[in-house]
Design a protein that fits this description.
This protein has 340 residues and is α/β, with parallel strands linked by helices. Helices cover 40% and strands 12% of the residues. Helix 5 (99-109) crosses helix 11. The termini are far apart. The relative contact order is 0.17.
Length: 340
């Protein structure tokens, strides 16, 4: 799959001192694992579980070749929807907000005593680059990005319902055709008003807040990944922020492309922070001069292929020994009956 393009690099670049939210699980990120994080129920909802709530969902990082795609979710009482998010705290589409400002909004959401912490619950689903690529590169039955995104969205919403939050309205930024996506969600959540729309993050404040949760979590995840490339003995003066290191992670970002070219292992490519299913990465590995060419035995080649049982047969002798498959020796000697 060719990577989505047309992103504005400056808007997508993280703040130099991005807030490291509780949604950053360092062990999972460095291991290339996907995971979900939920905040605690906000006080105003926990006190009265019958409080009618509005919920928004949005993503960050659909198009980059580096880093995870993150789905964010935010919910709060319907009565506070616009007054709290737009009028008091000035939420908007995260790509429109300055990096430092969206980072400060996320920090406020996570700070006890703030109005956002008191009234808003939020969650993120961090979809690792490794898992995204693994799904898209399946040899049979490709798990495409839209399907992965749909499952992440549905999973997050279901988990909020499992907390017994009284969600009355759901607003979501669309994946593909709005009507198709909306009908599918309405079948899953039949008692809830659902609206799927393009640019929902600029139309509905709860989606704007979800966008900020997703974007700041992705920014911080990129920072964690980038730090893993900094030598342990490097001082603070030698540590470049991710924005100066590999940039936004988008193929249209010259810093990202330069980093990929300069840090490509000739055999393994890159680490779990790279989406190997993206055209940018595949082209570098398949046509790049620095890449090592590997010839794999054909899957259906009877002369080359091996079965697991081939390692548990009697030892060949005489003429059979001279004609036995040399590939067996490459992977180890057969196990003979005498061992047992």
């Amino acid at each position: 799959m060719d990577e989505p393009d047309g992103q504005i690099v400056e808007q997508e670049t993280s703040a130099e001192n991005v807030f490291i939210a509780p949604s950053i699980h360092i062990d999972h990120i460095l291991a290339g694992s996907s995971y979900t994080h939920h905040s605690a129920l906000p006080n105003v909802i926990a006190k009265d579980m019958d409080t009618e709530c509005v919920l928004g969902v949005d993503e960050a990082g659909r198009g980059p070749v580096l880093g995870p795609m993150v789905y964010g979710l935010c919910y709060l009482p319907l009565t506070d929807h616009r007054s709290l998010l737009t009028e008091k705290n000035h939420f908007d589409d995260s790509k429109v907000l300055k990096p430092a400002f969206r980072s400060s909004l996320m920090e406020k959401l996570c700070t006890p005593g703030s109005d956002l912490y008191y009234s808003c619950g939020w969650a993120t689903r961090v979809m690792s680059a490794r898992d995204i690529s693994s799904g898209m590169l399946r040899p049979a039955g490709t798990y495409n990005l839209n399907a992965q995104a749909m499952d992440a969205t549905i999973g997050l919403i279901k988990e909020v319902f499992e907390k017994r939050v009284n969600v009355k309205e759901i607003y979501i930024d669309t994946i593909g055709k709005e009507s198709v996506y909306q009908k599918k969600l309405e079948k899953i959540f039949p008692t809830t008003k659902i609206k799927v729309a393009k640019k929902a993050d600029s139309l509905y404040p709860c989606v704007s807040a979800a966008s900020v949760c997703a974007k700041v979590t992705r920014d911080a995840a990129l920072e964690v990944c980038y730090r893993s490339y900094v030598p342990e003995n490097a001082g603070n003066a030698e540590h470049q922020p991710v924005a100066q290191g590999w940039g936004s992670g988008y193929p249209s970002d010259a810093k990202s492309i330069t980093w990929l070219k300069e840090n490509m292992d000739p055999l393994f490519g890159w680490g779990s922070e790279c989406r190997f299913s993206w055209g940018t990465a595949k082209d570098m590995l398949e046509t790049g001069k620095a890449a090592t060419k590997v010839d794999w035995p054909a899957a259906n080649d009877d002369e080359q292929g091996l079965r697991m049982t081939d390692f548990f047969v009697a030892a060949p002798t005489g003429k059979d020994f001279e004609e036995h498959d040399e590939l067996v020796d490459w992977f180890g000697r057969p196990v003979f009956e005498q061992i047992f």
